[in-house]
Amino acid sequence: MKALDVYYLDFKDTTCITVPSLKFKVGQKISDEQGNIFEIKGLSTFSGLTARRDVLNLIVQGKFEGNTVTLL
Questions:
Q1: What does the pLDDT look like over 27-64, one tens digit per residue?
Q2: Tens digit of pLDDT for each residue in 3-14?
Q3: Phi and psi at residue 40, in whole multiples of 5°?
Q4: Alpha helices for the chain (secondary structure H)
Q5: What is the chain's percent helix, strand, coil content, to nearest 5?
Q6: Three-state DSSP class for 49?
Q7: If we measure between CA atoms, which residue out of 33, 17, 29, 26 comes closest to residue 72?
Q8: DSSP label at 68?
Q9: Rounded to an integer, what is the distance from CA 69 to the centroid of its chain?
Q10: Contact, 15 vs 52, CB < 8 A?
């Protein structure tokens, strides 16, 4: 699935990946375009004026590369 946005916080070695899906859960494994495997450490949804019910932020430890997310 294509990510809507990917941003890396180097000072925390954490990546936030915005995806158009609600099927993900904490503890699941995903991979990036390079084949690197990450465990989902946290989830967040949008709230406020820009709230969307079909979009989720995945929080993973490490640097996620590219914009394709594969659920393992």
A1: 999 999 999 999 999 998 875 556 567 889 999 999 99
A2: 999 999 999 999
A3: -70, 120
A4: none
A5: 5, 45, 50
A6: helix
A7: 29
A8: B
A9: 8
A10: no
